[in-house]
Amino acid sequence: MDKYINAPISDEDAKSLRSGDYVYITGTIYTARDAAHKRMAECLEAKKDLPINLTNNIIYYMGPSPAREGRPIGSAGPTTASRMDKYAPDLLNLGLKGMIGKGKRSQAVIDAIVANKAVYFAAVGGAGAILSKCIKSSTVIAYDDLGTEAIRKLEVENFPVIVVIDSEGNNLYETAIKEYANLED
């Protein structure tokens, strides 16, 4: 089912999304990859404030290529989400409501998604140039020295994603395999 939501995402919207839903996000999301996640973890260990308020926000695991003339950002495809798995439960516990990436998540992340009524979305890998057309602005807001891995604030319009793991723990990667196996029988 196609759904349209605004970001930051409300608790009600997060709870209404189901594994397999096609979702179009409009509003503000943030980017962060491995190095930025490591820095955020170091901030938390040192009892310092994070550079962004995570409450109800969405983090897109993405490091863009350089912007072409007249564009706010270059190719903006998803990064493999499992690389952020050791950091994700702590961020979810701090109010993060959604993550966008590609690939499977660990059981610890799935448990934290359910406990916090959050959502894991997948963006289509290999479609970074197309995805970038949904990004209306991009501003580095933290860790500028990390280059493409800096935290960016993105304004997006109808950014297309698929719900992989919903707030109840339903996992599209598991259910799709079962459905396909039943088709073969």
From TrEMBL:
The keyword Lyase applies. Belongs to the class-I fumarase family. This is Fumarate hydratase subunit beta. NCBIfam families: PRK06842.1, ttdB_fumA_fumB. Keywords: Lyase. SUPFAM superfamilies: FumA C-terminal domain-like (SSF117457). Residues 6-175 form the Fe-S hydro-lyase tartrate dehydratase beta-type catalytic domain. The keyword Lyase applies. GO terms for molecular function: hydro-lyase activity.
